[in-house]
Amino acid sequence: MKKILRDKRAIILFVLPALLVYVIFAIYPVIMSGYYSFLEWNGAGEAKWIGLDNYKSLFFENTDGFTDALLNSFVLAFLSVFVQLTLSLILALAICHPRVKKQEKFYRTVYFLPAIVSTVIIAELWKKIYHPSYGLLNGFLSQIGLGSWQREWLGDPKTALIAVFVPIIWQYIGNHMLMMYSAIKGVPGELLEAAYIDGASYLQTCFRVIIPLIKDMLIVCVTFAIVGSLKVFDLVYVMTNGGPLHATEVPGTLMYSSIFMKNQYGYGSAIAVFIVLECVIFTFASRWVMYRMFGDDSNRQDVRRRGRKSK
Amino acid sequence: MRKRFVSMFLTVSMLSLMIFGCSSPSGTNGTDTTDTNVSDSSDADASDSAETITLTYWDGWADADTEPTAAAVTYALAEWEKEHPNIRIVADHTTSTSDGYKTKIKTALSADEAPDVFLMDKGSFAQPYIDAGKLLELDSYLDGKLDGMKEGVMETASSNGKIYGVPFNMHVNGIYCNTELFENNQISYPTTWEELVDVCRQFRQLGITPIAMGNKELWQAIQLFEPMMLSEAGYDYCLGAINREESFDSEATVKAAGIMLELAKADAFSKGVAGLTFTEGAAEFAQGTAAMAICGTWGLATFEGDSVAVDGKVKIIPFPRTADSTGTENVLQAGPYEYFAVNPSCEHPQEAAEFIVFISQKISAYCFENGLGLPVWDMQGAQTNSALFQQALDEAATATRFMSGWDFYFDSDVTVDYMNLVSELLLDQTTPEEFAAQLQQANSK
Q1: Do the Cβ atoms of B3 and A4 come within 8 Å?
Q2: What's residue A46's pLDDT?
Q3: Residue A298: per-residue pLDDT
């Protein structure tokens, strides 16, 4: 097997199918979007080369609420990192508690379920929950005597944004929970035992042993949460389509309406390119910031390994 | 030897996975897409002769429950198969919900991957593709085939005097009223906009939703606003303003916007109207909990049937007029909205043209008989089974002029701005003066 792994031809052969798929379905569309973003094109007729005019319209002469859409995606990123990941971590730590060992599999499956359900189904489900006349939420508020708190959740520009963000955050809690859970399971048992022998409670073990040891996975989760929020589209599109009155607009829905409703393929492509670049920049920036703040264990391990070898 | 075996095994496994992974699964359909192979493939193989022609066909009706025209298409395709065994149709039906079909056909046309025959929206939706030569000019193929088509219908599918498609039915809009709620509460049907506002106030006081509406897709509110504009300003002015020959920043627009705002302030619409889809709004009326709904004949089937609470209790009334109106003009919001078009790269344009005329006639007849749409072909002696549809026909007979929805006239980017501006009225988020100025600004871009 080692010989195969050293064989460059074998590596190329095995990497090629995935690389081809990646190039055709990820790299090529991004390059083409970059090209289209320099055009004025309605998707049908002759395209006109207009250089950076679409980017000028996007950043300096914007009239379609791009700044608000961008701010909405930042709000979602903030909520994802500080609410979604916090809840995911609490759940992951809870199901790893020694006292829930018997029910561990059950809870793990239940918490992960929303992540495997189709986004459209989740959106439809939450639309029923929020329905102003027969929705569960308004019904519940009425039942507990909080009828004055009832709202037209998705129809009111003041409440629509938060109403859409709740299911987005809920949907991926299970996903992050599972990633953190797998990292917790990788924490050496002897370290946990040592902590218990020293008299540490489970909470103390979490803060002093588990969380520091799963730091790398937490950083990965933060990166995924930020990037996922910046490029969010599907759930917002199905639930509100960016409305009412652009209240839930995010760059993804704005790109869609520019291309498919307004026939502005060039301008929409400029938004698409912006989303890609924004995600790449935030991926590197967030990792750089977090590694500077909390240190990079993987580098340290490499240094240790190299040190051992040199000895 | 063993290592070589492992290497060969992995290579063979990978290639097998690639081959099976890349092959298209037979009979696999998307969630909202259904494929219909009108000629069974085994039969086609058996009788595969040089004369057999295959035409690919796309439309936007996948679900007969929510898109009743789907049943008409199924009937038309079956009839075609009976009469034309040598011309095989490979049909693909996509839902129009959430603009699914529109997005699909736009993408396919942009990428030059449209099928031989496809459904197109008229007006500004189709115009860029006509200008770019992506729709086949059909004049020479339709010679003598359009005898019996109603007058003026072909204008829908024409541009610069040339024909680019064949329409198949028409629709007329109106206010659908729940007779039980009106009669039990002794409320009269409104004939003027002022009366409509008053009727809405009365129903709201009774705890009944006055007008069931879902405006998430943005197009339902404009169906109420446009009759207001037409009654305030008239057909010629409205068309002139759309064509930038007149200004929308006028007293008439302010008045029409004022009526819409009055309705919004009277809490006339469904709770959460901006977050509900058209289907959800229509369901509220169908359940009998709303007094009125703004609808066209395309949605009429939703309000008929044994399982529908309002079955037999619906009356269609024309849109109100202004109280001081003295004119005799009665403009109805109506017309054909869609047509079947042919791809210029179709290898059998003559057969494709014959096919679209054939299914247009069949769909037109089926829709008329079953109350799904007004016919575009002369239907002498034909009867409709739907009493509600007959009401719509009677309403259409009173019209002196017809005008389609303005989203078919405006350019696509103006349409989006226009629909958002009307939504602001619906949510009481603007003033009539601001609305008029902003609409003019949007149409001047």
Answers
A1: yes
A2: 87
A3: 59
